[in-house]
Structure formats: structure tokens, C-alpha cells
């Protein structure tokens, strides 16, 4: 019942020796007799994994319990900085940029020597396009000597500074407006196109239909690291219809983290097609939303870079999504050789026990206690697909 025991248990979880449910139960046990706000600090600390980031479903607890921690004389300054960093990241992820800025300023003024705090602070100033500040923080981390922790981050940062990669912008139009309004308040003016690079890349030479590899299916559910993906389209005919949105989430070791570095989401200007009214009503993606979006040959290389050589996990993907990716690859002159795993094939083994009317992703999710917050939008469907797969794996291990 002391700090050392607590940190040992956190290490067990981070090293994947115990699962999340058992971990949460142990945290409740060892914090039960602690006084506030030390108890609340340890619970919030248990939400952290590699960085000071709190998942969306746990942020309410962070917001409700952080103030007493920050005002307490019994909490160390370095520990308070972890909470401030978590608040900065959480408010930014929830598009509350003003509150995020408040905690970023505090951290900048105190200038913590915690490498993870500095890394997240540099990332924050990169996303808010204050590149001089971000560069100074990265250089401080390098000076301290922990290059390995931020090598990838620093490379991505330099790509943005050098114009190789577009700067940060939220996915939805509503949140874009919040972000650009905030940026303008900072004195960083954004042009009428919101600073995004519009499609100017010429379409490459297409790969012929017969020359593109057929999608390969991975049969065994023997993995817990993958990329779950989904596409929205103008219709169901992959030979004629076009992708309007493509999204994915990268899952490592069975852990779903809805943080920007693990997510991919892009609206796509449909190739030689418009979105029919019934599809607009189904997906919520309108012709107006995609009219200035990138063409598929601009988006697809970014998607391929994101997925790496991971297994592509989809729902009914062998019948539908994979075929649209093949066409996207042909139009982009870019071949992918990733294997696909179709979660629907796995779910069918549990059809009787699921007791669901049909095999749609929404219905299967509900049968497993998984809510899809925005069905027929690519990112929500991709995340739901990942959750369904991991839940089935769990049922399979229990022998249910």
C-alpha cells in the first residue's frame, strides 16, 4: 500500500503482464484507503500508458478531479505537471483549444525536465504552428540525451516545417472552424482555404485491371496488432463507384488508443462520380463536403504510408472494402500487398450466441455491448470493427 507497490503494478500493465480489467481492479484496491487528492492522482496516473494521454471515455474523471490535485501541497510539482500535461492533451483532443493553451503556457513557464512532458509540449506547439517554440523544445530533449524517444516525432515535425507534410487540422468541418478561429486569435492567420493544400497533383498512369494483385485473406485470428479500416463510397459497384472517405486506426498489442498518431481519416473527392442523395442521407457525407477534398491518388499514398505492413482488418472487407482499395491502388499507380482479415467471417462462428437479427456491423456491435457513435462514417466504423474483433478474441479465449 505504498507508492512503490503502485508503480510496480503500473509496470506490470505497461509490460502487458496483466490485462486492463485486472489492472483496474488492482488500482481500486490499492487506492481505496488513500486520502484525497492523492487517491485521485494515482487513479489518473493509472490512465497513462506511454505518454500523459487520457482516453476519451476516462476524461470526465480527469476534468472533475484535477483541480484539487493541482492545488494540493501534498503532490510533487513533477506529478502536478503530469496532470497538467494530461489536461493539455485532453482538452486539445476535445477541441477546447483555449483550455489546452492555458495548461501549455503553465508547462512552458515551469519548463519541466520530464522528457514525456516536453515531448507532448513540443507536439502541442507543432499542432498550433508555433514552430520556433516546438523546435526549441525538441532541441532541449536532444540535449538532455533522449533522442530515441522523439526521433520519429522530430522527423515528422521537420517534414511539416519544410512543407513536405501538411500542418495539423481536425477532420470535421465543425472542429476545423474551432481550430482556425483559435489560430487567428493567436495571431496566426489562415487563408480562405484554411491553409490546406488543395489537389494539384496530376493523376499518375493507371495500373491495368489484370495487372493489380488480388487481395489476400489472412484466415487465422492469431494477432492483436493490426490496422482496422473502412471506406465510404458513392455506391456498391467497385468497378464504377468511388471512395468518398477512408479511415483507419492502428492497434498495437490489442490496445485501442484514439489519439491522432494512431488514427487516419480523409474525405476524398470521388473519382468521376457524385454522391447520390440516398448515400448522402445514409453516410452524412455530402457533395459539398468533398468538393475541395484531395483526389484518391493524393490520399492513397498517405494511407499506404500509415498502414505499413500491418494486417488490414475490415468488416465484410473481402466482399467490399478490399475491392475499393484495389481500384484506389490502380488509380494511384501504387500496389499494396497487405493481407486482409475479414471480421465478418469470424463473427459468423458466433452467430447463434450473438442472437442478432442480422450481421451488420451495428447489430453485431450492439450484441457485444459495443456502440457505434457514427455508423456509416469511416473512422467510427473502423474503430467499431477493431472493438468487435478484440471482443471476439476475448470470448474465444474464455471459450464462450
Task: Give the SSE map.
Elements: H1 3-14, H2 20-31, H3 38-47, H4 59-71, H5 77-93, H6 97-110, H7 115-127, H8 131-144, H9 147-161, H10 173-185, E1 216-217, E2 226-233, E3 243-251, E4 263-269, H11 277-283, H12 287-290, E5 294-295, H13 296-307, E6 312-314, H14 321-332, E7 339-342, H15 343-347, H16 351-354, H17 361-367, H18 378-398
Parallel strand pairs: 1-7, 2-6, 4-5, 6-7
Antiparallel strand pairs: 2-3, 3-4
In brief, what are we looking at here?
The chain has 400 residues and is α/β, with parallel strands linked by helices.
Mean pLDDT: 87
Low-confidence stretches: 192-200
Radius of gyration based on Cα positions: 23 Å
In percent, how much strand structure appears in the residues? 5-15%
The helix content is: 40-55%
Number of strands: 7
First-last Cα distance: 36 Å
Explain this structure to me?
- It is a single chain.
- The chain has helices spanning 3-14, 20-31, 38-47, 59-71, 77-93, 97-110, 115-127, 131-144, 147-161, 173-185, 277-283, 287-290, 296-307, 321-332, 343-347, 351-354, 361-367, 378-398; strands at 216-217, 226-233, 243-251, 263-269, 294-295, 312-314, 339-342.
- A 7-stranded mixed beta sheet has the order 1-7-6-2-3-4-5, with helices on both faces.
- Strand 6, helix 14 and strand 7 (339-342) form a beta-alpha-beta unit.
- The chain is 51% helix and 9% strand.
- Helix 13 crosses helix 14.
- The chain has a domain at 218-398: Nucleotidyltransferase, domain 5, CATH 3.30.420.10.
- The chain has 400 residues and is α/β, with parallel strands linked by helices.
